Amino acid sequence: MDDALQPGELRLEGPVERIADELVVSVPLSEGGSQFIDCTRRIARIDLQRECLDIVIPTWLAAKIGITDGSRVVISNQGGVFHCWCA
Questions:
Q1: What are the residue boundaries of the structural domains of the chain, listed by start?
Q2: Which residue in 34, 59, 81, 82 has the most C-beta neighbors within 10 A?
Q3: Does residue 34 contact residue 27 with C-beta atoms inside 8 Å?
């Protein structure tokens, strides 16, 4: 993946937490979460109470790259596609 981000693309780092037996990265809508909505439609939900986009890390991806509760990950919407890797 090319490191140069285009306008509208974002790269963020944050913790993974377990919510209702799912591994989730929560991104405040005001801090970039809104920019991930299109590329995470099938794996994310908006929490209006907390004003966050909760992105569920699929089990197969978590196992493949070693993500667990408390891991730090980097997420990106580069190229209009959701990317996630360990920080």
A1: 11-86
A2: 82
A3: no
